What we know:
Blueprint: E1 15-23, E2 25-43, E3 46-51, E4 62-63, E5 67-73, E6 77-83, E7 87-92, E8 101-102, E9 110-118, E10 137-138, H1 158-171, H2 177-186, H3 193-206, H4 210-223, H5 230-244, H6 247-260, H7 265-280, H8 284-295, H9 301-317, H10 321-340, H11 343-355, H12 359-371, H13 380-393, H14 397-410, H15 417-429, H16 433-449, H17 452-468, H18 472-477, H19 479-483, H20 493-510, H21 514-524, H22 533-542, H23 546-554, H24 562-579, H25 582-596, H26 601-614, H27 617-628, H28 635-648, H29 652-669, H30 677-685, H31 689-700, H32 705-719, H33 723-729, H34 736-744
Antiparallel strand pairs: 1-2, 2-3, 2-9, 3-6, 4-5, 5-6, 7-9, 8-10
Helix pairs in contact: 2-3, 3-4, 4-5, 5-6, 5-7, 6-7, 7-8, 7-9, 8-9, 9-10, 10-12, 11-12, 12-13, 13-14, 14-15, 16-17, 20-21, 21-22, 22-23, 23-24, 24-25, 25-26, 26-27, 27-28, 28-29, 29-30, 30-31, 31-32, 32-33, 32-34, 33-34
Amino acid sequence: MLFFLFFPLFLFALNLQIDYGNAKKPYEVLTLYDKNKFTCFDRNKTIICEFDKVPITPVFKNKSRYFSIIPKFEDKFRIYIRVKGNYKIFSFNDNLYNNPLITPFKLKKAKKWVIVVNEQFLSKEKNKGLNFYYHHTYLPYVGAIDENLRPVNTQISKDVIKFFEILNSYKKGLDVLNEIDNFVKKYPKSIFIPDILYLKLKILDKENRSEDVISLGKKWIKEYAFNPKLPEVLLLIGSNYSKMGFLSEASYYFNRIITDYPNTKWAYLATIYLADQLYTTGDDKKALNLYKDVLYSTTDLDIASLAASRLAQRYIDKGEIKKAIEYYKKIYKANKKFILKDKIKAYELANMLASHKIYDLAINIGEDLIKRLKKLDDLYEPLLYKLAVWSYENKDYKKSLYFIDRYLKEFPYGDYSDNAKSLRDKILFNLPESNLTKKLNQIEKIIKNYEGEIKQKAIVKKARILFKLKKYDEILKMEDLLNKIPDNIFPDKKEFLLKVKKEALKELLKNKECFKAIKLLKKYKIILDKKWDEEIYNCAMRTKNYEIASRVCNKYLNDPNDEVFIKWMQRKIEALWGMRDYKNLSLAVDDLCSVKKTKCYKYLKYKFFALWNLGEYKKALKVAKELEKFNNFENVDVFIKIVNYALNNKDNLLAATYAKKIIELQNRYKAYPYSPFVDFTFAKYTENRQEAIKVLKDLLNRVKGEDKARAYFMLANLTKDKKYLKECLKIKNSTLWKGLCRDAMDLF
């Protein structure tokens, strides 16, 4: 069962994991863990887990062989777990290693719940073995064991002490290579030889001594073929072959790990390294697919983060910055520790993001990173200043001022102190929105208390502040006042007012305020860039301003690109239909279908109704013939027009022909909008008596009352069989046709 890094079932601190395997029969273990206690209880093969807190991230349904997981937001947040097969549920509060005291009491609320499903050892048969009960006692303790699972002597051997001394020194970053070599010479039969040599391999790898890694690694795998660290050593050999440029040898080891240890950390790492090789040799597509395979297969956050970071870097190399940044966002959201573990790379990443104006993420990474730095770190001072700059560029002036003040306090004579002071003055001069509002109040007082040039300048200043605040409506209310201001005080008046009108229209279009947008467009005859044509067209159609919609379409009808022409000609036809310009609509359909050639049914139907509304019935009938080829159920709306037209013009044959077509379509799609009218019309006017009888018999099951009585009456007339009249007389809710049937009885 796989849980994806970026398709998570993580909420607040909750973690869900399914482990599975085979022990003669398959089994699955579902573990739910949260830092806060929660309740799980069993109800009719469904386990319900209730949480006090609502998750802040989305939770999705998931399914495995035995479990079906369904999250629901009710009065509380709950997870419903439907279980197939035999199962048991256990609850735990503490790690047994930290608190080995066993309690016999079942917990009602716990931090950890485990559900085990297995058809074999959890069968309903009574266990015939021994049961041991521990009441507030400690777990049985064996102590250290060797590789043969035998207890190690209580007197710790010297090699044990020495091994752990070397291991601790290594963890502190000390050079232990000589000590490792001395250990191997002194304790050649120690059970720690595989581990100490593995440690040496890691050190050699870190020092980029690839030949030594490969040589020692090959000896290691030959001697310790059954050691659990085998896939790690194979990976070290493969990666060092890759460093040396022996790609085929490296590929051998990577593929061996992938084949022999599928769905493990080492297989996923091998896949990433293999993808790296493919990328360097130019097979970009295959490399990217392998990274994605790992990303969406592994449950290991660090491995998934590594795959995602590789994808991000590759997309940067290809110039696809947006895609790269999306991956960085996902890594940061799911596993920020991965980004922050290398401080220099984290700093460089934040810089790169800021250079592409992704300030939110750059600031988040920078803030997390600076908490991990000390004041004397080389990165600390430049990062503190850059956080101020990024916050300013992100228009978060309050945060920018915080970092500026902090920088000047900590580094009053620092490398960036002059720049920081300049940025502070800039923020205070270009006031943020809250201060602009205060400034606007001051401007209002000037307008109220002064006349002449000062007042005029204040009015212009007010208009410019309102523009920054995006209060375009208020500026437009001032339009007459602004037009009276002399050009020497307001030189860019026309350009400014036009910009206001355009921005006001864009804002209305963005917010789907179509009635206001179209009103503004009509009043000022505003012309926007082509990129706004979609919104203008949609708003015009929504508000039934079909002429405006039609004019927008005209811009594209001479476009040499067929796709563009088809898209806008289709829209033009919709607008013409709204305008009831049936003549031009008919011509437009011809132009469209000559280019579109296929899938023109909808617009041919428009043409039919347009011609019909124009009274050009013969032309419309030709279009109906074309529509017949499509066998579309919507044809019934076309054919019914022809049936009614034929009846009005006493063209009985035409009426019967199209009534039959409607009957056939209705039968095919099992929908009968025009029955029994078309059935009776066909039966009455067709020259094919057998067909008429069949249609009426088919109709009997779908009608009742007068319609059913009428069908029986017509069948009697067509077949001369008195049984239909008898059936007619049995119908209760009929008067007219039942009476006709009664009168006809004497005629048979």
